Amino acid sequence: MIEIFTTGGTIDKVYFDANSEFEIGDSLIAELLAESNIHDGYALNGLLRKDSLEITDGDREIIRTAVSQCNAERILITHGTDTMPETARALLSVKGKTIVLFGAMQPARMRRSDAVFNIGYAWAAVQLLPHGVYIAMNGEVFEAGSVRKNLKAQRFERT
């Protein structure tokens, strides 16, 4: 069983106008998994509905506690890309689990989103990787503590 925690971020954003006003909407993760013919083998839990720039250390503690207390050994976490490396680092104290964070550069509701690819990639990664904390983005897996988001290139890279 894979436990999936949603925290918001671009993957779940809903834009309202050309001025970039948005809110974090209901997660589309179950819908995206169903489109990939994945209908079971996971539990979905909403933790937060925040842009990652608004995630605080207190929020990271909520995420860490939820991950620590769940019975699953394999965990996926949706997260906004701007502070994903910080949250991954905050999860390094959790032992005995494989934890993979992922998100999207464009909302899942948009036609040209990377969300579908990223969730499929993270789904495979969480089943194949050894225990630890990882970020799965851009078709690569990065270990927590050795990754950053390159804002200019709009991609993740090793540090």
TrEMBL record:
Signal peptide: none annotated. Gene3D superfamilies: L-asparaginase, N-terminal domain. This is Asparaginase. InterPro entries: Asp/glu_Ase-like_sf, Asparaginase/glutaminase-like, L-asparaginase_N, L-asparaginase_N_sf. It comes from Marinobacter algicola DG893. The active site is at 10 (o-isoaspartyl threonine intermediate). One of its GO terms (molecular function) is asparaginase activity. Residues 2-150 form the L-asparaginase N-terminal domain. It comes from the Bacteria. SUPFAM superfamilies: Glutaminase/Asparaginase. Pfam families: Asparaginase.
